[in-house]
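Onboarding guide, step 5: your first structure request.
Type a short instruction followed by the sequence, for example:

Predict the 3D structure of this protein.
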Amino acid sequence: MAAALGSFRGDGLSSAGSTPVMFARSAHARQNVLHSGEEKSMNIMPIRHALITTFVTLLIGISTVIASPWGAAKAQIPSLVQPWGLPPLPLGVGQVEKFADVSNTPQGQFLEGGSFDTEGNLWFVAIGSGWISYLAADGKLVPVFNCNPPPDLGQTCEPQGTRWHDGKLYLATRHRGILVYDPQSKQVSTVVYTYRNQLFKGPNDLDFDAEGNLFFTDPWGTGPGPSSTDHTGAVYQYSRDGILRKVMDRWTAAHFRMALRCLRTTMCWPSGTSGKAAFGTAPS
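The system replies with structure tokens like these:
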């Protein structure tokens, strides 16, 4: 017992007996674990090196692209905004150029209602001044007529949408109903001004279907903005044989652009239907 006890060294190991064998195995196991960790570390090192190399390569590539002419062009996209106000062009759209500038003329006060005649002239209205004009193919401004009455006769015209049909220009106005201009006689006349002896709320836009019937919207003062609770806007048809009908009602201004697009097709009410299924109200 004394010999066995005296055989232990300060590190807990002995050169004899069963206990020294157990400690020796433990030490050997620890050594194996250390060797295993070193092997794993050596295996991971090439992977780390490869990842670092790849990351550095990517950074160099990105820097090269940004410095290239393509990268410079991409960075300059915001500068493509035209000095006269157009935003950057969408992909696939060619460069936009200014065709004409009418901003400092009476004919350029609040433009709307653009439409082309058969000669390629672009007709438009100036809501603020009452002028109806066109731009010729060379960009020249040609004032044609003013739909405002003399100041002492009351309310201005406020022209809105335009549409050419059978060689004549049809015009929706806020305060004078639907007008038509004949370029041959230079005369402006009223197509329709009231419905069942009631003034319109304010016609805004118009179009013709394939059969030559005129449709126009009457939305003024309805919907978000003027009155979100006012749904008394309507769409009218002035048929080719001269009969005025209200074909949609209980609408607001927000609906009318879709209504005009629809009315040019058979999507609204195909032949033989009343239109109630599509819009909730039948013609009246």
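Each response can be followed by summary notes, for example: Residues 18-67 form the longest helix (50 residues).
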